[in-house]
Structure formats: C-alpha cells, structure tokens
Amino acid sequence: MLQNNSLLAQLKQNLRETTPRVEGVIKATDRGFGFLETDDGESYFVPPPAMKQVLHGDRIEAIVHEDGDKKSVEPETLIETGMKRFIARVQLREGRLAVIPDHPSVKNVLKTRLKNTLDESSIGDADWVVARLVRHPLKPDDRAFFTQIDELVAKADDPAVPWRVTLARHALEQECPDAGDDWPLHDEGLELVDITAEPFFTIDGEKTRDMDDALRIVPREDGGWSLSVAIADPTAYVEEGHAADLEARTRAFTVYLPGQNVTMLPEQLADDLCSLWVDQERPVLACTLDVNADGSLDGYRFFAATMRSHAKLAYDRVSDWLEGQGDWAPEDAIGEQLKALEAMTLARAAWRAEHALVFKDRPDFVFDLDDAGNVLDIRTEQRRIANRMIEESMIAANACCAHLLSEHVGHGIFNVHRAFEPEKAEAAQEFLSGQDIQVEREQLIELSRYKELKRELEGRDDAWLDARLRRFQGFTSMSALPGPHFGLGLAAYATWTSPIRKYGDMVNHRLIKRVLKGEQAPAEATQQLTDQLTERRKLNRMAERDVKDWLYVRYLTPAAEAQETFEAEIINVNRGGMRVRLTANGATAFIPAPMMHSDRTKVAIDDKEGRIQVEGEERFKLGDVIRVALIEAREETRSLVGRPVE
Q1: What pLDDT was estimated at residue 8?
Q2: Residue tagged active-site, from 58, 102, 127, 204
Q3: Highest mean pLDDT among 104-108, 452-456, 513-517
Q4: CA dihedral 92, 98, 102, 108 (to 10 degrees)
Q5: Exactly one of 213, 320, 546, 624 is catalytic; which is it?
Q6: What is the rounded average pLDDT for all residues in the chain?
Q7: 255-257 and 260-262 as β-strands: parallel, antiparallel, unpaired?
Q8: Which of 69, 98, 209, 214 could form a disulfide with 200 if both were Cys (CB 3.0 to 4.6 A apart)?
C-alpha cells in the first residue's frame, strides 16, 4: 500500500529539503572524535561512531543535529576522499593483510589486497607501500573501507626509508634519468665566441658537481664593472623533443635532498658534459653586463660561446680570504677579480636596497650524513660574502634575461610574485589599519608603491607584524608572460642561470638563442607547462622539508630524552598551540597548549592575531624568541614536541 505512494515520496523529499545539511572537510583528532570544517570557517562536532564512516581529509555532506546550543553532524554523502593514493605500512596478523596509512591524523587499520602484479611473498610486516582506497562506507553499495596495495616502496629495514618514502609520497622519481651515453654537440647555427683564454672561475660548495655558472669581472675606468656570466648550456646537447628533453620537462627540477640528489637531466650531462669543470672546454650561453659604480645596470649583451673554467673555488675559502682569515689564497689574476666582484656586490646590494628590495639573510642548515643515512651533525652555514657575490651576479643576469624576453619575445618562463593577491589586499589593508598603519590599496598591489611600504615596515623591525602580514601575502608562481616580482622589487624576473637543474631555464635558453639568431620565437609557453613547473617546485620543496623533518627527529631524539633546551622563534600559532623553529639547527617543534599551563582553561589562544594569553596575561606571540625544552621525538609522525621554559 505504501509502495509507489506519491504522497510518501513527496513527504520524504520535503523532509530532505528541510533537514539542515553542511559541506566541509573532516579533521580527525587522536581521541576518536573529529570536526567537520566548512569553507567559511564553521566547525561542527563529529562524534566517535560517525568518525568510523570517514577518514581525515574527506570532503563530505553531512546532516546537522542540534541539541540545545550544541551542534553535531552525521556523515551522509562522500564528495571526495582525502585518501585516494597514500603511503602506508603493512600489517600482517595471522595471515590477514591490512595497511595503516602513514598520516599523523589517520589511525585506521584498513583491510587490503595486493595488486595482481605484486608477489605476496615480497610484502612483509611493517613494509612501506603505496596504496589506494577502492571502497568507502559513504559510497553507494560500499559497506566498509577497503584498499589495494599498488607498489612496494621500501622494506621495513631499508636504511633509505626516509628518502624512498618521501619521494613516493609526493610521486617524485626515485632515480636519476637514464638516457644513453651518446651526447654529441649539435650545430645550432650560432656564432660561438671563443672565451677559453679568459680567466673565468666558479664558486660553489666543496662537494658540488653540477656547476652551471662561471664569472669574469673587469673593473672599468669610470668606477663601474664589466661582469660576464657564463652559464652551462644543456640545450647544446639536448634538442627540443628528445627523450631526455621530454623527461626533463616532466621532472621540471633537480630534487635536492639531504644526502641525495635526483637529477633532472641524466647524470652524464648534469655532472659531467655540461658541468663547468676546471680546464674543460664547455659550450655556454653568456651575458656581459655593464654595472655602474652606484650598482645600477647600464646595459647587457647575450652571446653563445665556448668557455674554459680556470679555477674551481669554494664559498667558505673565498669568504675567509676576503675577510683576511685562513691560509688559502687564489692565484693573482683570480684574486683581483674576487676583490672587484666583492666591490660590485656591495654596490649592487646597496642599489637594490634603495631602488628594489633585498631579502633578509637567513642561514642554511647542512646535514652531515654517514653512508647509512645517519645524521652525524647539522651545520649552520651563514650567507657570507662569497654566497652574496654569486647571488647578486645571478639576480642581475636574470633581470637582464627578463628584459630581453619581454622586449624581443613577449613571453618565456617568468617568476611572478605579487606581495598581496588582489582578493587579499583589502583584508591586509584592514589589518595594517588596526596597527595604526594607514595604507592605500595601491601600496599593496602596485610595485612602486609597495617598495615604499616594504621599506617603511622593515624600518619598524617588528617580528610579530612581519609574521602576521605573511598570512595575506601571495606565493611565487611561474608565468608565460612577464609580471612583477614583488619579493625582489623588480618589474620582471626570468631565470636562465640554472639550466642543468631547472627546465624553465632550458626553455629560456632556447628563446634567447632564437633572439640571437634573429628567428621568430614559437608560440608562448602554455599555461599547462607553467602550472606544472609551479606544482613540481612545490612538491620538491615539500619533499625536502619532509626528509629533513625525518632526519631532525632521528638526530634530536637523544636531546628530547634528556629534555635539552634550545632558543626558538615562534613561527605559527593555531588553536592547539604554537609551532617554533630552533635557531641552532632549523628544526621545528610543536608546543601544545597543555604544555603552557597545567590547567588548559587558563590558556587563551587567539590564532588569528597570533597571540597567546596565560592566566589573563599575554605570554607569547608570533615572532617572539623563547627558550624551549624538547620533550618528545615521534618518528612515526616525524614530529618534535616541546614545552616553554620559564
């Protein structure tokens, strides 16, 4: 009687339409319950029974239940799972196969099966694998979670686990490309200038093998300098469309990890034929820049050449010599150039500080590893004068490349960075107004006005203000068309100085060569390519961060066991606590709110303002430097936990 009843169907439809629902992303906790967070910032409680139907990161639609002033949700429809492809560890119990996702917020043990191409005997307990979700309780006809193991990443006892797992997590290549041994130079129809007799030199790290830039500097009578930058030229060996070119395009960048590099080009090219080794003739693309005594650029000329490096120098030795330290000394002809390059660097930096913008110097942290991948030490490398000499030379050369491509081609691979995206400019303006800093919107989105504002803000030397303002700022992206680089304060910026390790630089090399030959450039680089370059750069940076986090935990486990104290800077504040960076080695640690006071109710966290009150008094804020004791090192989540020290 009730079947096919139109009134009943209409009633059900009316009930559905009047039942409140929300869409959002599931955030799991380690206490069984979770929250559904909507795109507009609302948060709804998800009780433990309901959490068994979802995974952290799932985007779902849920029914809202109200009990007085308390709201909770019941998952109803899966929109998109957050666990399509994931890294997991195998669990073998009495012949039953399962996987545990390698994620700090996912504790689920998920039933699994092997891909039919995998040998069951090759998979052991605690091995690392790539798996994917094939069934989900919120999908029609699915009753429970079920997964499939698609790939073995590493055995449980493999010392290379941090590297293997990290590269697999981000779907990055595990090995350098292999593209044969025959690499003849191609006749590209370019007039090659012979500069082999000129005393060019390289400055790199002691262990660097892929040396892609060499310099030659000559002082001018008017107090300025003539700086020649010679860049290794893999496009002289690798034709566009060649298998090695297509592979380099896919990889986009060389991946630099502590203890391991995964090259973009075959190693024979990256570390040998293209690398600017001493006393070896190499094809290069070069640019001679005229630099005035005040550091401004006066003109430039690109040309193809054959070059021979006369000296392989190391950053620290050059810096020591220029600072009057150590017992190393260069040959006279090179030494004169180093002093001239130092003078030019100081002039360029001063000019950029006044007319463009200069990054604050931050140290690099270098991991010393043994053959098994154990961390022996983490060294701090400051940005000394030799590093700055190379940096200023490359920035000047890349600015010239951007000008050439803008004027003669109209497109290329440009690095574009807007300090504030237009949609965030109004919020940033309101924030600054709340700090008694009155700015016009144009100061946030127009380069010339922004440079004035940036210098004013830097003059305040307010770490909290700098940290808060970063929430509104944009990121660097790759663009086929010229655009401003607010971080450098330049109207356009296009790199060509690292073609061994960046595919975008190879693209720009080919465009520069077309200009030199007077040829019409091909159609502009596609949005697909620039999007890919931007995405791969992000993945590479995340991979580097993830490996370092793993190694930091291993290295600092003894310090956590001894509850050693460190100086640290507060770099983030969220609802659960604050994240700090240890100034001694660059590691980050999380300080949960209960570590700030035994009574959690006495800790008030304002995550939007980046401030924390304890017992009604402000105790911590973004940018503060505090003392922190490490209390736990968790390798399973690659995280460090600390507490503030009074």
Answers
A1: 61
A2: 204
A3: 513-517
A4: -120
A5: 213
A6: 93
A7: antiparallel
A8: 214
Active site residue 127: no
- Active site (annotated) includes residue 466: no
Residue 391 clears pLDDT 90, i.e. is over it: yes
pLDDT at 95 over 90: no
Is 204 among the catalytic positions? yes
Q: Does 562-644 match 22-80 at the fold level?
A: yes
Q: How far apart are CA 553 and CA 630, in angstroms?
A: 11
Instruction: Return the biggest CA–CA distance within the chain.
Output: 104
Cα–Cα separations (whole angstroms), residue 393 to 118, 225, 448, 600:
52, 12, 23, 53
Q: What type of residue sits at position 247? A: E
Per annotation, catalytic residue among 169, 501, 536, 579:
501
The 10s digit of each residue's pLDDT in 21-47 is: 999 999 998 889 999 999 988 999 999
- Sign of the Cα pseudo-torsion (317, 318, 321, 325, in order): negative
Write down the pLDDT at residue 10: 62
Residue with tokens 């931050």: 362
> Which residue out of 212, 245, 320, 624 is catalytically annotated?
212
With contact defined as beta carbons under 8 Å apart, do 234 and 506 qualify?
yes
CATH: 2.40.50.640, 1.10.10.10, 3.40.50.150, 3.40.50.720. Which one for 85-158? 2.40.50.640
Kind and range of the H or E run holding 612: strand 611-614
Burial class (CB in 10 A: 0-12, 13-18, 19+), 285: buried
What average pLDDT score do residues 9-21 get? 67
| Mean pLDDT along residues 473-496 | 93
Q: What is the pLDDT of residue 438?
A: 87
> Are the C-beta atoms of residues 319 and 391 closer than 8 Å to each other?
no
For the chain, the domains span 22-80, 85-158, 193-417+487-546, 422-473, 562-644
Alpha carbon distance 172, 164 (integer Å): 10
User: Three-state DSSP class for 86?
Assistant: strand
**28 three-class SS:** strand
Is 212 one of the annotated active-site residues of the chain? yes
Pick the catalytic residue from 44, 237, 300, 315.
Answer: 315
| Nearest-angstrom CA–CA distance, 247 and 423 | 37
What is the spatial distance between Cα 36 and Cα 42, in angstroms, rounded to a whole number? 8
Query: Of 3.40.50.1260, 3.40.50.620, 3.40.50.2000, 2.40.50.140, which CATH number belongs to 22-80?
Result: 2.40.50.140
Task: Assess whether pLDDT exceeds 80 at residue 572.
Answer: yes
CATH architecture of 562-644: Beta Barrel (2.40)
pTM score, two decimals? 0.90
Q: Where are the alpha helices (DSSP H) in 562-610?
A: none
pLDDT over 70 for what percent of the chain? 97
Cα-flanking dihedrals φ and ψ of residue 71, to 5°?
-120, 135
- Annotation marks residue 272 as catalytic: no
Apex 84 CA angle, 79 and 87, nearest 5: 145
Q: Annotated catalytic residue: which of 210, 233, 245, 271? A: 210
